[in-house]
Specification:
Strand order of the largest sheet: 5-16-15-14-13-12
Structural class: alpha+beta
């Protein structure tokens, strides 16, 4: 098996990179970078068919495959790399950057992902639990007996779960199944071996039914949300919402799928305009929230209702504010007592002061594009920040001034993926990590390689 730190493992890829980026890798300071894992890889190589008579002896798939084999042998989830021009004429220098406990993985980049500045810290939306809704009751349409009789009529030969199996599932979940869901599984246990060509559970029930042993609670931990995304969200559930717009809830019991990766669940923690036991859909692409499918399981299965109810549009000051040339025009317009997230993007005006948001009690996230802040040191006056994302130049100002906020839980460096050398980003990241007593990003191995001409 190839060794991850053996230069021969990397030679085929280095050859291809050198051929594709000969000009860049011949200039002082020139570099190319990428990331490889067994499941995916991002390598700066053109994807084009070779010219007749000039086909590479090793394709980029073969070259990356050697590294994937080494990762699997080494038990390493992924590796990032930087190839620089070497001081040796025609040579290159290879740097390997292995995963760090102090960062979340970068996404398709060799630059470090979010810096984790406190053990076990999670973005605020992930920490949120459902609010109590006094007086919430099942919908008038909920009728467990009607649901059971309808299912028995539609599925006279179905096999149901035993009371012992249901009790075991409830013990595993830590919550009793609501009556409708219990009756559903008493008629149809959902095991794959019970299916045949004559019965499609989707047509009968309205979703792909999970076997009872695969039913799970969709709490926040079940929906992995990276800091850089979770910090940019805000939980906002108004009186008009049937579903609380959470990352997850201990009252969301997932029992099926829509066939496209979105989960179908019974909701025991509804929003102010919802019902206990309503059916919701949890999207697999979003980081937060869920939508209403039906007011009850009976409503979905018996009456074939799948579209929920429209949510009235209510205008409120946004909890997440985007200040840029196409959204909000200024920080003054964005500022209000409930503001949680402020993102400052590309502007067509002079840099802005943060003074309008000084003292806001809920402002926990700030992201700013390069050159948009009149004085980056004003950030030190935002005393409730949990997450801060800045370009390298603004971080440099804060570090040199000793003005990095002390209460951060996580931080992001918004480096340019191609222009900025990841090694410099890592050096900057380690300065920030050191302020919080966190382990530095290590595991950088440097290997010298000979010149590669390509074919």
């Amino acid at each position: 098996m190839p060794s991850l730190h053996d230069v021969s493992t990397w030679q085929p890829l280095l050859r291809l990179l050198h051929a594709a980026h000969a000009d860049t890798l011949s200039e002082p300071g020139g570099h190319v970078a990428g990331q490889i894992s067994p499941g995916a890889w991002s390598v700066p190589l053109p994807h084009r068919p070779p010219q007749p008579g000039h086909a590479s002896l090793v394709s980029q798939f073969d070259a990356v495959g050697l590294i994937v084999e080494a990762l699997e042998e080494n038990g390493t989830g992924s590796v990032s790399f930087v190839v620089e021009a070497s001081s040796t004429p025609g040579g290159v220098r290879l740097h390997l950057i292995e995963p760090s406990s102090s960062t979340e993985p970068g996404i398709a980049t060799a630059h470090p992902g979010t810096l984790l500045l406190a053990d076990g810290a999670l973005p605020e939306p992930v920490r949120r639990l459902p609010d109590p809704v006094p007086g919430a009751v099942p919908a008038a349409s909920a009728d467990a007996d009607l649901l059971r009789s309808t299912l028995r009529e539609r599925l006279p030969d179905s096999v149901g779960a035993s009371e012992e199996e249901i009790a075991a599932a409830e013990a595993r979940l830590g919550v009793p199944l609501p009556p409708e869901l219990r009756y559903l599984y008493r008629v149809v246990r959902g095991r794959y071996e019970d299916w045949d060509d004559l019965w499609d559970p989707y047509d009968t029930i309205g979703c792909e039914l999970f076997p009872l042993g695969e039913v799970y609670v969709a709490d926040a931990a079940s929906r992995r949300v990276l800091w850089q995304f979770g910090a940019m969200e805000a939980v906002e559930t108004g009186p008009e919402h049937a579903v609380q717009q959470l990352v997850g809830s201990p009252g969301w019991i997932v029992f099926g799928d829509n066939g496209g990766g979105d989960r179908i669940a019974v909701d025991l923690t509804p929003g102010p305009d919802g019902h206990v036991g309503q059916v919701i859909i949890i999207g697999h692409e979003g980081n937060i929230g869920a939508g209403l499918v039906a007011d009850s399981l009976t409503d979905m299965v018996v009456h074939r209702h799948f579209d929920g109810r429209p949510v009235p549009r209510v205008e409120r000051p946004p909890l997440v504010a985007h200040v840029n040339r196409v959204s909000l025009p200024s920080i003054e317009v964005a500022a209000h007592a409930g503001l949680e997230v402020l993102s400052i993007g590309v502007l067509e005006k002079e840099p802005l002061s943060l003074a309008p948001v000084f003292g806001l009690p809920h402002l926990r996230t700030l992201c700013a594009y390069a050159g948009t802040l009149a004085d980056p040191c004003e950030i030190a006056r935002l005393t409730h920040l949990e997450y801060l994302e800045l370009p390298p130049s603004e971080w440099r100002v804060l570090l040199d001034a000793g003005a990095v906020p002390t209460g951060l839980l996580a931080a992001g460096i918004a480096a340019h993926q191609q222009r900025d050398n990841p090694l410099r980003t890592i050096a900057l990241a380690n300065e920030i990590l050191a302020l919080y007593g966190r382990p530095p990003i290590t595991g950088i191995t440097v290997m010298e390689g000979a010149a590669y001409s390509g074919d």
